[in-house]
Amino acid sequence: MKKRWALAADADASDVQELHRALGADFGALARVLAQRGLTSLAAIKEWLPGTPLDTVDLYQMADLEKAAVRLATARSNGERIFLFGDYDVDGTTAVSVGKMALERGGWTVSTYIPDRYAEGYGLSKVGIDRALAEGASLLVALDCGIKSVDLIAYAQGQGLEVIVADHHMPGPELPPAVAVLDPKRSDCAFPHKEICGCGVGYLLWRTAYREAGLDPNELDDLLDLVAVSIGADMVPLIGLNRYWVRQGLAAINTSPRPSLAALLREKTPGVITLQDVVFAIAPKINAAGRMRHGHLAVDLLTHPDPEALAQLGQNIEAYNSERRATEKEVSLAAQAQAATQHSHVGLVLVGQDWHKGVLGIVAQRTVEAFYKPTIVLTEHEGKLSGSARSVPGLDLYEALDEASEHLIQFGGHRAAAGMTLLPEKLEAFREAFNHAVDRRWPESQRQPTQHIDSIAQVHELHEGLATLLDRLEPFGMDNEAPIWGLKGVLLQEVRTMSEGKHLRATAVDATTGAKLPVIGFHWGHADVSQPVDLAIVLEWNNFRNSKTLQARILDLQ
Questions:
Q1: Which residues pair with 518 in a beta bridge?
Q2: Can you tell me the distance from the alpha carbon of 126 to that of 132, in angstroms, rounded to the nearest whole number?
Q3: CATH domain 342-446 topology
Q4: How far is residue 110's CA from residue 86's CA, in Å, rounded to a whole number?
Q5: Predicted TM-score (pTM) of this structure
Q6: Mean pLDDT across the chain, nearest whole number?
Q7: Are the beta carbons of 275 and 476 closer than 8 angstroms?
Q8: What CATH topology corresponds to 55-307?
Q9: Angle between helices 198-212 and 240-255 (to 10 degrees)
Q10: Contact 230, 94 (CB under 8 A)
Q11: Radius of gyration of the chain (CA)
């Protein structure tokens, strides 16, 4: 489907002019974008740039945080065993890894647990609770999960196992009966940073527990590299506290990388490690452990001190990631063939008998990209259907699932992604209910794919000096994306294709001024570029053979 270009609203002309003057004559394109984002002076940019430092945040604004920290401090004094239970994705495994290293360093006795994706499914499980009881734990901390596990937590508490929930997903109508429930999305929680990841919630808990135990919370600063990995992988907004954590974490990864992360980055082209490297080079490999084998392998990798064992774990996870890619391709082909038969549905529910459960979320995202419809991908295991969903811009997926939830055994997630379980006999009723909910909640005006454009630019405005200044504004991510510029009516010259015609390299030329800009277009090798084209692009560097040159990456071509 052809994309509709949506241009960001222009900022006040006087604000743009003032900022342009302050930045310098060559930075008009950047002045337009920053002013749109409310950064209208150098002072405002300098204040925004580092994010919100942790020492300026009142952690005790988070509901139940003090209660949870005091309970952990008591557990340390009494020598109790703490059982860390985390979900099997990057957020959950990093949360458990950070918790293990923080608590053991501070003198706590710790066990760690990641559920099996197939045997236990998403979230807190009875199997995990029973394991905690068998190991003699007196306190379980549910990380990146637990906010809707009312019955399971009641069971644990009834067995004498106290529970602290440290989650960031949307609560249900009833909070679980835990000793403490930490979740910024609680309606009664005054903590202002609502969109932190599960690992981030856990990190605040460990710091506060250190304070309550008379330890120095700043001893945990070195764990922010893993918090940054979690933030990047979980796609939470890169503003405020999240921005501060990511900047601190990336600085650590670039100056003294943790051996486990260095092992996962060994194939990366030399150069500065960015958040994009975290998202595309580290996170998929950590996820691959839980997708293809078991999520605890990721915890072992991230926390293991033995270099030889670390090297072997890294190689194993690399192999699982390769296996994941092959499996994902196979399942995607089958899922998209099925999607092509559901013409009348605005919300897709796809089902496969033997689809690998570990790749369903990725397959759902690939299907969204191909059909531009919210997509649920399910597979059957032990008499139940379970799977993952991905949304589209303009639709709150969680609300759509909630509307159709009478047909589900359980579900959880947020506006962009979710997981669910249902009985096979409920499939058709759920498919119809989900389709109806999507149709009702997703405006028809938003059902054409949209390409956001921050500003229309001229080729001569996009130069190396601008790219260098953009480097200083990193990291970019959700709610703070890299600027996207639109180039209208440019000529593509010196055109060549790569990878058997899949990709495109060329030089964009302004027909009037002759200004030039190298461009690369992944999966645009098929495009007809014999006539002038409009391009949506982001500026980046091409690092090749120890040489760094400017290029623009094509997001859309018309």
A1: 507
A2: 10
A3: Diaminopimelate Epimerase; Chain A, domain 1 (3.10.310)
A4: 13
A5: 0.84
A6: 92
A7: yes
A8: inorganic pyrophosphatase (n-terminal core) (3.90.1640)
A9: 90
A10: yes
A11: 24
Residue 551 Rama label (left phi>0; alpha psi -120 to 50; beta): beta
Fold of 4-48+451-557: OB fold (Dihydrolipoamide Acetyltransferase, E2P) (2.40.50)
Q: Counting every residue, how long is the chain?
A: 558
* Residues 213-253 pLDDT 10s: 999 999 999 999 999 999 998 888 899 999 999 999 999 99
Q: What is the DSSP string of 262-327?
A: HHHTTTSPSS---HHHIIIIIHHHHHHHHHHS-THHHHHHHH---HHHHHHHHHHHHHHHHHHHHH
Query: What DSSP string describes 335-375?
Result: HHHHHTT-TT-SSEEEEESS--GGGHHHHHHHHHHHH-S-E
User: What tokens does 17 get?
Assistant: 């002019």
Token readout for 112 is: 């760690």
Q: Which residues contact residue 135 at a Cβ distance below 8 angstroms, ignoring those fewer than 6 apart?
A: 81, 83, 111
The pLDDT tens digits for 354-366 are: 898 888 999 999 9
Residue 292: band (very low, low, confident or very high) from pLDDT cuts 50, 70, 90:
low
Whole-number Å distance between alpha carbons of 549 and 540: 9
**CB of 73 closer than 8 Å to CB of 261:** no
Q: Is 4-48+451-557's fold the same as 342-446's?
A: no
Strand pairing category for 547-557 and 533-544: antiparallel
Question: Which residue ranges make up each domain of the chain?
Answer: 4-48+451-557, 55-307, 342-446
